[in-house]
Design goal:
heterodimer; A: alpha/beta; Peroxisomal Thiolase, Chain A, domain 1; 11-stranded mixed beta sheet; two-stranded antiparallel ribbon; 10 helices; 26% strand; globular; B: alpha/beta; 10-stranded mixed beta sheet; 13 helices; 19% strand
Chain lengths: 350, 395
């Protein structure tokens, strides 16, 4: 079965909504990069961080209803409403809409707020609200609650294996016919501790991310959430593209054989380990757009969105900061996701 | 008997009831429960909240491993041995790993964060350790498994959902064998978190009892080896049970409380029955979620009574393990399968007085059953409701 992507709701450093991603690809808007001060044993260091420009949630939910909702869940909600709006679909039967979300780190700021309560106020100071909001499945659950969706609801957290697993799960629910639509959401939240860890692991050595420079660590952390509204492929559907193949954990030889002629979007994010493996792929049409949204475990979902926009617009957008022009896109595009050394997930969009 | 679904060929378990399936079942059938003040974690509180801790002396085979990973590895080793899967055999097949956890996926290393907050610039190896201990990835790396790998984080239904997802992987031919279940260690974060929610009990839990005061946290891991029937046949390995039905649905009601009418749970049970191709009457017994909290037991008890009548044999094995969160679904699946094999259920320890609000009388002593199929429920924060149905395979 092929999956049809009917709507996309990105919230990232380029802004909120699919048009912000498109204008970013067109080079008309630059990502919001904020300088964070990171303490190190050698003094303070500045770390550029891709921060989301999250705007417009109050169009969908009154502010007072969000008082107990943590910031990560708020951008998850925003991206979900934007995806539904983008698809222009009203759910007639909310019991047949599933929610499957993925995240590498989950709601990190709330997790550390909970720890702050304990450290600052003692063990009796633990906050029930922060605890309930710190669990990984809080964003997916809040989406189901706010939208009244009573289909299946699940959350997967498996770093570079997250995107493939949420898509396979969505496919399974559609295949079993327990749902008509699935909201597939992926995202990660930046927090100061992650910035501290990133610097400790050599990030922030450059002021900009150079994803196609495979020989240097140019990783910069980011934050964002993106939701796709997905359904079974039917011929009359509007939308962006069809996911015709999801191949998990494939080795280098299989990757080389699979991507001979198609343009390939890779989830290179300035990480040296990734770079070494991508270097071996040896394909001329490799492209990376991660310097539009930064690096985080689920950022490959934004690559998938770039692939979808490219399919809809029938063009390959030039890689940011390059001087190249748009190229006409033919029939399909591949998104290639690094899993581990010389092992990748392959997504084919048609 | 027509065998359905995918086969279970191995089981492993570690929890407060025991460090193997056999020792845990001995505790269950002897009504022994190891519920006491926490030893591995300390907290400064006015009252003490007992927990169900697994044996502290798990061999540390890998210093970089978290306790959650070690608990998982312990149970995985037992399950692989029963299933006849050694390193050489694992290499022959596409083996997936699908595990549920809650503590095991959370970036909340308290000593590291205390040092960070105090401006001590702690070593980031703590973060590196977190990155290397994603439950499913850790096991897949250790065993060099090349199949799909996923960690499910659906709070208290994670282990059940992991087994459900593993079932779909096998049915959709994404792999041949899956190591599935759940693992979670006891942590100060969840300990203090559940106390802050006012649902932890100051005494040993009493699932479905009128005078229950809340849950006790526990820790452990429960693992099943699942495989396609043609694979288990080709390997010549004995089938213990079949996973025949699974479903999960959301309540869309409240972040930490189930829907009062149990709408999600009812739908999950009905869908799992539909997938299994059996009727309600064919379910021989239920291993309930049975946390001993007011909300869960009322909603789950009423839902079971409404669907099945109040005489279906129902047990809450959390009365022997505590609430092991992400591990619960895995551990309870193991106990359920062993119950099908033994055709026997343990007492629900701590239950004494019927609660009209729950409408359910769980087991009060070991009982013999005559069951081909059995149901395991899991309810979770966020309003998740999951149901798994297993078929027994008699000797």
């Amino acid at each position: 079965m092929r999956l049809a992507i009917l709507g996309i709701g990105p919230v990232c450093a380029l802004g909120s909504g699919i048009q912000s991603l498109r204008t970013g690809l067109q080079g008309k808007v630059r990502p919001n990069i904020e300088e964070k001060i990171i303490p190190t044993s050698h003094g303070e260091k500045m770390l550029p961080v891709y921060q989301p420009v999250a705007e417009g949630l109050d169009r969908f939910i009154p502010k007072r209803a969000l008082r107990r909702v943590d910031p990560f869940t708020q951008i998850a909600l925003l991206s979900t409403y934007l995806a539904i709006e983008d698809a222009g679909i009203a759910f007639n039967d909310k019991s047949r809409v599933g929610v499957v979300f993925g995240s590498g780190y989950g709601p990190t700021r709330t997790t550390f707020k909970f720890l702050d309560n304990i450290i600052d106020d003692g063990d009796i100071g633990a906050s029930p609200t922060h605890f309930a909001n710190s669990v990984h499945n809080a964003p997916a659950s809040q989406v189901s609650i706010f939208l009244g969706l009573t289909g299946p609801c699940s959350t997967i957290t498996c770093f570079e294996h997250t995107l493939s697993n949420v898509l396979v799960t969505a496919w399974d629910w559609l295949n079993q016919d327990v749902v008509d639509y699935v909201l597939v959401g992926l995202g990660d939240e930046y927090c100061d501790v992650l910035g501290f860890a990133a610097v400790g692991m050599n990030a922030g050595r450059t002021k900009d991310m150079q994803p196609m420079n495979f020989n240097a660590c140019t990783f910069l952390p980011g934050e964002g959430h993106i939701t796709f509204l997905i359904a079974k492929d039917k011929s009359h559907q509007e939308g962006y593209a069809k996911i015709s193949e999801i191949r998990m954990r494939r080795d280098l030889e299989e990757v080389k054989a699979s991507i001979s002629n198609d343009p390939v979007i890779i989830n290179a994010s300035g990480n040296l380990q990734q770079g070494k493996s991508f270097l071996k792929v040896q394909q001329k049409q490799l492209k990376s757009y991660s310097n539009l949204y930064g690096g985080f475990p689920t950022s490959s979902a934004f690559d998938l969105a770039v692939g979808c926009v490219s399919m809809k617009d029938r063009k390959i957008y030039p890689v940011p900061e390059s001087q190249k022009k748009e190229v006409k896109l033919e029939n399909s595009i591949i998104c290639l996701e690094f899993c581990r050394e010389d092992e990748f997930n392959i997504y084919k969009l048609e | 008997m027509i065998q359905k679904g995918v086969n279970v060929t191995g089981m492993g378990c570690i929890c407060a009831a025991g460090d193997s399936v056999k020792s845990a079942m001995n505790s269950l059938y002897s009504s022994v429960r190891n519920c006491a003040a926490p030893k591995r974690i300390q907290a400064k509180l006015e009252v003490e909240y007992p927990v169900f801790e697994a044996a502290s002396e798990i061999p540390v085979t890998d210093p970089s491993a978290t306790r959650t990973s070690l608990l998982a590895l312990h149970a995985v080793s037992e399950a692989l041995e029963q299933s006849g899967l050694d390193e050489r055999e694992l290499k022959k097949w596409r083996v997936g790993v699908c595990l549920g956890t809650t503590v095991g996926c959370t970036l909340n290393n308290e000593p590291f964060y205390r040092d960070y907050k105090a401006g001590k610039n702690p070593n980031v190896s703590a973060i590196d350790r977190y990155l290397g201990n994603n439950a499913a990835l850790y096991i897949a790396d250790k065993l060099k498994c090349k199949g799909p790998t996923a960690t499910i984080a659906n709070a208290c239904s994670s282990g059940t959902d992991a087994i459900g997802l593993a079932k779909s992987w096998l049915e959709n031919n994404l792999c041949d064998i899956v190591i599935a279940g759940g693992a979670d260690e006891l942590s100060r974060i969840t300990y203090l978190g559940f106390i802050s929610l006012l649902i932890s009990s100051t005494e040993a839990c009493r699932p479905f009892d009128k005078n229950r005061k809340g849950l006790n946290l526990g820790e452990g891991a429960g693992i099943v080896i699942m495989e396609k029937s043609d694979v288990s046949k080709a390997r010549g390995v004995k089938t213990l049970s079949n996973v025949v039905g699974y479903a999960t649905f959301a309540d869309a009601y409240h972040p930490t409380a189930p829907h009062p009418e149990g709408i999600g749970l009812t739908r999950a049970i009905n869908q799992a029955l539909l997938q299994a191709g059996i009727s309600l009457e064919q379910i021989g017994f239920i291993n309930a979620h049975g946390t001993s909290t007011q909300n869960n037991d009322e909603v789950e008890g009423r839902t079971i009574a409404k669907l099945f009548s109040d005489i279906i044999p129902t047990v809450s094995t959390k009365s022997y393990t505590g609430h092991t969160l992400g591990a619960a679904g895995g551990i309870e699946a193991v106990f359920l399968i062993q119950g099908l094999l033994d055709q026997k259920l343990p007492a629900t320890s701590g239950f004494e007085e019927f609660d009209p609000a729950c409408e359910l009388n769980p087991t009060t002593s070991n009982i013999n059953v005559s069951a081909e199929f059995a149901l395991s429920n899991s309810l979770a924060f966020g309003g998740n409701n999951s149901a798994l149905i297993f078929q027994g395979v008699p000797e």
